[in-house]
């Protein structure tokens, strides 16, 4: 049996299993978390609007990073909630605070993404409206 401190050999099979686990986690996130489903729906709408408006490469980069940040924060929040519920199924004030802080992180990243969206999309929309 290997000790935890020993490095694991890198193999294609091992990487494929890691990717499969990660994809399963994304499926669980989207299937079980209404907020994650909402974030994905908004991301799809943002991408569609970006294609329609013809965003620049730099604008796409900012949009992509914003979407990834929001979805990753939602995933971390969900992982923390699952773990906390497994460790302490009964109400615990400290676990409740930890969950609140994690939810606050999702809100902060969502607000940041909304600000990026306004800064990128508003000038394009205003140009279209003005003709």
Order of helices and strands: HHHH
Radius of gyration: 19 Å
- What is the molecular shape? extended
Q: What is the number of strand segments?
A: 0
Q: Assign a percent range to the helix content.
A: over 70%
The DSSP helix count reads 4
In round numbers, the mean pLDDT is 94
Largest sheet: none
CATH architecture: Orthogonal Bundle
Could you name the CATH topology? Helix Hairpins
Instruction: Give the assembly state of these chains.
Output: single chain
Description of the structure:
The chain has 131 residues and is mainly α. The chain is 84% helix and 0% strand. It has 4 helices and no strands. α2 (34-53) runs antiparallel to α3. It is extended and about 60 Å long.
């Amino acid at each position: 049996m290997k000790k935890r401190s020993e490095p694991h050999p890198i193999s294609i099979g091992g990487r494929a299993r890691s990717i499969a686990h990660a994809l399963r986690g994304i499926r669980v996130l989207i299937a079980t978390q209404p907020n994650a489903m909402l974030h994905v729906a908004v991301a799809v709408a943002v991408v569609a609007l970006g294609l329609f408006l013809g965003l620049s490469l730099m604008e796409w980069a900012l949009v992509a990073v914003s979407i990834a940040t929001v979805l990753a924060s939602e995933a971390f929040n969900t992982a923390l909630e699952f773990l906390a519920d497994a460790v302490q199924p009964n109400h615990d004030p400290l676990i409740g605070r930890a969950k609140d802080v994690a939810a606050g992180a999702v809100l902060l990243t969502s607000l940041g993404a909304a600000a990026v969206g306004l800064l990128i999309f508003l000038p394009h929309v205003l140009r279209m409206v003005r003709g």
